[in-house]
Design a protein that fits this description.
heterodimer; A: 426 residues; alpha/beta; FAD/NAD(P)-binding domain; B: mainly alpha; Cytochrome Bc1 Complex, Chain D, domain 2; 6 helices; globular
């Protein structure tokens, strides 16, 4: 059938065009079906763009995203420190529509009907799909912190762990705090989004205090027993740059917050009152992943087939990014989510155009953290599919850490940010 | 006019080449190469001062990766990443980037 169509096209004088199209899609000019993507973050936007690219337009893609523009969590700690502005971490979704022909729907998916293959939007309408990609990121388990389990409290005590208005508000709270004040933040038990993020945040806010409010300090309450990621590198940065500015207290799990008196309460330790609070609650997969029945692990994370990112619970439904139960050594990071997006895109294009699904995915994680305004440390790893264990495993001998914080990697980190934002949105 | 049958034959064989089982291979190589995009840009076309891989000759890319892998060439991160890939994967990715104009 393909040959006959092809000859027909050549006969019509469109031979070279047909050849160009043939590399990506079997049918000339026809649609190979429809994909709906829930969530335009690092994984969802990337998957949407790459499905369009690799199917050469043969697969229709609709991206449902409530936010008007993408705001990046990576680099957002520099906004909190006053080194970058909100505009520096904000990118428009316009190119996804203009350059890639993705239909953008500014709304939220509130229900998935996997049998009918439709999703229902908060606005009331429904969208049909052949394959659904669920990439809603994380939501917070406020039910574990009673004092924060209401909208009013949540409007006063920021998590700033989803970049956007929360980031801007926390920055304003820090600016309004008088010199000599105490900024208290909490780190939840893992797994949580961006393992080194809290420690980078402590560096950036301590840097701000050192420059502009030198009598102030950061108290970092960590529910974990030690720094979760890049421990030696962060502790060295704290000793080298922020002596007297950062008070690190491991084994401190926040169990409640008194919003009126700005007091943190712990399971075993004395209460702590501060001037500005930043409470990062424990996390689970985004709400729609739970309501769609995809959170197969502890009703918290979504298990997937690592060749396709298809849910183990629902056919034709893929889950990406921070919502999934990661493979061993796989962090919840924007970089990793972007790689999920592309691996899933390759599989979805293969399945919808009658090709074989790539059977040996390999991808890397690179995570830069700013320990000062311009010095950076990294951790990297390479992950390869293991056929026997049916999961991604880190490749032995690959990856590693920065030996010492340095400015060259500060340049590389910003290059990384601009390239990954462009990779998902340009 | 005689060109047309030849052109047809050529395009036909080219089509068979890409439409054969190598298409899955094609997507596999694209998946591998796409992992580089986070720092080196989509299809190896980089933003900012990052190194573009697009259009670099395949043998040069292979040599560079081999030097990162062996430790002969110093780096901040590429020596750690290069060790995660087999020589065959590197060769396939190098051919992909060389073909990007």
């Amino acid at each position: 059938m393909k040959r006959r169509q092809f000859i027909h096209s050549v006969g019509a004088g469109a031979g070279l065009t047909a050849l160009g199209l043939s590399a990506g899609c079997a049918t000339v000019g026809g649609s190979k079906g429809k994909v709906v993507v829930i969530g335009g973050g690092f994984s969802g936007a990337t998957a949407a763009k790459y499905i369009r690219m690799w199917s050469e337009g043969a697969i229709d893609v609709t991206l449902v995203e409530p936010n008007p523009a993408f705001v990046s969590c990576p680099i957002s700690n520099l906004v909190l420190g006053g080194v970058k502005q909100m505009a520096d971490i904000t990118t428009s979704y316009d190119n996804l529509k203009g350059r890639h022909g993705i239909q953008m729907v500014r709304d939220t998916v509130v229900a998935v009907d996997a049998k009918k293959r439709t999703v229902t939007l908060a606005g009331g309408s429904t969208l049909a799909y052949d394959r659904l990609i669920v990439s809603p990121g994380i939501d917070f388990m406020y039910d574990k912190i009673p004092g924060l389990n209401n909208a009013d409290a949540q409007s006063k005590v920021m998590h700033a762990w989803k970049a956007g208005p929360q980031t801007a508000t926390l920055r304003k709270q820090l600016e309004a705090m008088p010199d000599g004040g105490v900024f208290a933040m909490s780190v939840p038990l893992g797994p949580y989004r961006c393992p080194p993020g809290p420690y980078e945040r402590a560096c950036q806010i301590a840097g701000y205090f050192k420059r502009e409010k030198p009598r102030s300090k950061v108290v970092l309450f960590d529910a974990n027993k030690d720094v979760v990621s890049k421990g030696k590198l962060f502790k060295k940065a704290w000793a080298d740059h922020y002596n007297g500015y950062i008070d690190y207290r491991p084994n401190h799990k926040v169990i409640d917050v008194d919003v009126q008196t700005k007091t943190l309460k712990f399971d075993f330790n004395d209460d702590m009152k501060a001037d500005v609070l930043n409470v990062i609650p424990e996390m689970r997969a985004g709400t729609i992943a739970r309501t769609a029945g995809l959170t197969t692990l502890d009703n918290r994370w979504c298990e997937v087939d690592f060749l396709t990112f298809e849910s183990v619970a629902q056919k034709n439904v893929h889950v990406l990014g921070d919502s999934i139960q990661g493979a061993p050594g796989m962090p919840k990071s924007g970089h990793m989510a972007n790689q999920h997006g592309k691996t899933c895109a390759a599989a979805v294009v293969a399945m919808m155009t009658g090709q074989e699904v790539p059977s040996s995915p390999v991808y890397a994680n690179t995570c830069y953290s700013f320990v000062t305004a311009d010095e950076v440390v990294h951790v990297a790893s390479v992950h390869s599919y293991n056929v026997e264990k049916k999961t991604m495993l880190t490749v032995q001998g690959s990856g590693g850490l920065t030996p010492e914080a340095n400015k060259l990697e500060g340049v590389y980190a910003m290059n990384w940010a601009h390239n990954i934002w462009a990779d998902m949105l340009s | 006019m005689r060109l047309i049958p030849k052109l047809l034959a050529a395009t036909f064989s080219a089509l068979l080449l890409v439409a054969s089982p190598s298409m899955a291979q094609d997507l596999q190589v694209k998946q591998w190469a796409s992992a580089c995009a986070n720092c080196h840009g989509t299809n190896g076309r980089a933003e900012g001062t990052a190194v573009s891989l697009a259009g670099q000759p395949a043998d040069e890319l292979i040599k560079k990766m081999a030097a990162f892998k062996s430790g002969e060439r110093q780096a901040t991160i590429m020596h750690q990443i290069a060790k995660g890939y087999t020589d065959a994967q590197i060769a396939a990715m190098a051919a992909f980037f060389a073909a990007q104009k």
